[in-house]
Automatic annotation (TrEMBL):
<keyword id="KW-0961">Cell wall biogenesis/degradation</keyword>
<dbReference type="InterPro" id="IPR002502">
    <property type="entry name" value="Amidase_domain"/>
</dbReference>
<dbReference type="GO" id="GO:0008745">
    <property type="term" value="F:N-acetylmuramoyl-L-alanine amidase activity"/>
</dbReference>
<feature type="domain" description="SPOR">
    <location>
        <begin position="194"/>
        <end position="233"/>
    </location>
</feature>
<dbReference type="GO" id="GO:0042834">
    <property type="term" value="F:peptidoglycan binding"/>
</dbReference>
<protein>
    <recommendedName>
        <fullName>N-acetylmuramoyl-L-alanine amidase</fullName>
        <ecNumber>3.5.1.28</ecNumber>
    </recommendedName>
</protein>
<dbReference type="GO" id="GO:0009254">
    <property type="term" value="P:peptidoglycan turnover"/>
</dbReference>
<dbReference type="InterPro" id="IPR007730">
    <property type="entry name" value="SPOR-like_dom"/>
</dbReference>
<dbReference type="InterPro" id="IPR051206">
    <property type="entry name" value="NAMLAA_amidase_2"/>
</dbReference>
<dbReference type="Pfam" id="PF05036">
    <property type="entry name" value="SPOR"/>
</dbReference>
<dbReference type="InterPro" id="IPR036505">
    <property type="entry name" value="Amidase/PGRP_sf"/>
</dbReference>
<dbReference type="GO" id="GO:0071555">
    <property type="term" value="P:cell wall organization"/>
</dbReference>
<keyword id="KW-0378">Hydrolase</keyword>
<dbReference type="Pfam" id="PF01510">
    <property type="entry name" value="Amidase_2"/>
</dbReference>
<dbReference type="GO" id="GO:0009253">
    <property type="term" value="P:peptidoglycan catabolic process"/>
</dbReference>
<dbReference type="InterPro" id="IPR036680">
    <property type="entry name" value="SPOR-like_sf"/>
</dbReference>
């Protein structure tokens, strides 16, 4: 994940200053063909590029609407993919149009024309990594992640289609997304398990005098058992 931070302090949502205890994550996509982060995040920090219309969301009511999310995923000026955190994670966002604003961290993936497979796979991967990061930060599991359209079905968000109007065009859906988060979370826990790996060990002697043990070890090594060692307990 290429995580940056630019808090939208001029947005009325930030100024409202309400906090929540996050219970899950809501995945959104913008619904407009504009993959550039500078459309939504500003002012230019040297990486975003300049928004010539100055219509990014770091203003009181962007486009006259009361909207704000915790993060955006999209393109930097150089075309690379990045995540910008735009609200503190425990700030009450205005992303769901429903009660999910009181419980969910919401982020937007900037849409393009929805047909570019390489852009999709790059932002899908970035979104996975953001979710894994937030799961670890708040102790969420994959089951705590929904998209906007799923939130509508649950009665906690407004009637929007994102992201299920897009992901299936590239063979993905929220089921694959959650499964991928689950796999990534379990992979990160694996190193600890391998440390605890069990072995069958062969003992060739037990001595109360250390020098006797050392003499036997030397004999074993000389006989070709070069991995032989002394354990004292
Ligand atoms: Zn949405």
């Amino acid at each position: 994940m290429n995580l940056h931070k630019l808090i939208l302090t001029n947005n009325a949502c930030f100024k409202a200053g309400k906090t929540i205890l996050p219970k899950g994550i809501m995945v959104h996509s913008t619904g407009a063909n504009n993959p550039w982060l500078k459309r939504y995040v500003g002012p230019d920090d040297g990486l975003l590029g300049k928004n010539q219309y100055n219509n990014h969301w770091n203003q009181d009511k962007p486009g006259g609407r009361q909207v704000c999310v915790h993060a955006f995923i999209g393109k930097l000026a150089d075309g690379s993919i990045a995540t910008y955190q735009t609200l503190p994670w425990n700030h009450r966002g205005w992303h769901a149009g429903g009660t999910a604003n009181n419980s969910h961290i919401g982020f937007e993936i900037c849409e393009d024309g929805l047909t570019d497979a390489s852009y999709f796979s790059a932002v899908y991967k970035e979104a996975l990594e953001l979710c894994v990061y937030l799961c670890k930060l708040y102790g969420f599991s994959d089951k705590d992640i929904i998209c906007h359209s799923e939130g509508y079905k649950l009665g906690i968000a407004s009637n929007h289609a994102d992201v299920m109007h897009w992901f299936p065009k590239h063979g993905k859906n929220m089921g694959t997304f959650r499964a991928d988060v689950k796999r990534l979370l379990s992979e990160e826990n694996k190193p600890a398990e391998s440390v605890k790996k069990k072995y069958y060990r062969v003992q060739i002697g037990a001595y109360s005098v250390k020098t006797n043990a050392e003499a036997q070890l030397a004999k074993a090594k000389k006989a070709g058992f070069t991995d032989a060692f002394i354990k004292y307990d």
